[in-house]
Amino acid sequence: MTLPSIAITGIGLCAPGSNNLQEFRKMLLSDGSGVENIETRHMGQVHAGVCHFDELKYQNRKQLRRGTRAGSIAIYCSRESIDNSGYNLEEADKSRIGVYLGITEHGNVETENEIHNISAFDNDTKYWTHHHNPRTVANNPAGEVTLNTGITGPHYTIGAACAAGNAGLVQAVQMLQLGEVDMALAGGVSESIHTFGIFAAFKSQGALATHEDPTKASRPFDQNRNGIVVSEGGCVYTLERLEDAQKRGANIIGLISGYAINSDATDFVLANPVQQAKCVELALKKANLKASDIDIVNTHATATPMGDIQECTALREAFSGCSDTYFNNTKGFIGHCMGAAGALELAGNLPAFEDGFIHPTKNLEELDPECALPNLVYGQATQKEDIRIILNNSFGMLGINSVVIVTRYNG
């Protein structure tokens, strides 16, 4: 049985330093940065990727107070994606639309805030907010989207650590191919910078980036890299079966032609390059492609010393002999957007189908020899003729690996 092709017809995002794909792409090609210093509880000043989108564009102040930061990001990105796609939401059968959002974690922000608040009242739980439960259930961000849009089809979040953005896309593709929905909003969101715990945990692991200049703190593959810049963000795609998109005359950004998810089963944190390489190979097989067919590989590299090395080991194995495949990384510009990372970083590369440029890896000044990859793009953007296929890596703690492949549409 031949499964239907799945088309990307809309992209909505908020990333550190940009609030739509056009702004995001401009930042990636002009050496911009969305990383700044913020103050966080118990930690003082930290580097973070901060989103500055218009929270009131699709919500009123009461809705913002009742909901969550992750929900607000999800609503903004979903509404922007629908608008970008030209999909007529009000005339559609909303019971045939699904919402599938990847998350790293959810509820930490609200729980930390509420514990802090009742500490001022001798920890008397009568001051604990009655909004706690709907704010902290794992399906909250996707659920807030349905409340905002009136979508009555299936919604849920996919907890897949930092592989979650890709996992949201994979789930949507499968549901569309099964005929369970006719349109899907899919991707990932993260509110991570609003919890001090994530900063404290990375610092205790020796994995929190430090630099006198926050815009240079995230340094994937650099010899002097020293850790992660925690960031918030979101990216939601409008996905449809190709035939349906063609019928309504949609602008088709690309086709999701392959994907894979697997597990290391070896360590809580340290990646397994053997399983990462296998994940790439599985995605290529599903797409009926060879490694040499890939034009751009967007790497996951988070700028941790061992994590970057392990991924490069996997990539050298998976793409051995591929002289025309180029590699880049996005986290130097925006930090690590956790659950949103995979979806956002893929989006930043998709305009290459039109403009022919491969954005560089930012802040790579002295390449770590153990991170050497052929055709690693850094310093400035590289132009390449006829970019047709982009592969996006996204990996996470507990050894979850995800790969999504997008092919240019030639309709």
Can you put this structure into words, describing what you see?
It is a single chain. α7 (164-177) crosses α13 (341-349) and α10 (273-286) crosses α11. The two termini are 23 Å apart. A 10-stranded mixed β-sheet has the order 5-4-6-8-1-9-15-14-10-11, sandwiched between helices. Strands 2-3-7 form a 3-stranded mixed β-sheet. It has 14 helices and 15 strands. The chain folds into 2 domains: 6-247, Peroxisomal Thiolase, Chain A, domain 1, CATH 3.40.47; 258-407, Thiolase/Chalcone synthase (Peroxisomal Thiolase, Chain A, domain 1), CATH 3.40.47. The protein is α/β, with parallel strands linked by helices and 411 residues long.
Brief rundown of the structure:
Helix 3 crosses helix 6 (140-149) and helix 10 crosses helix 11 (305-318).
Q: Can you give the mean pLDDT?
A: 97
User: CATH class of the largest domain, anyone?
Assistant: Alpha Beta
Shape: globular
- Structural class label: alpha/beta
Number of domain units: 2
> What is the subunit organization of this protein?
single chain
Taking Cα atoms only, what radius of gyration do you get, to the nearest Å?
Answer: 20 Å
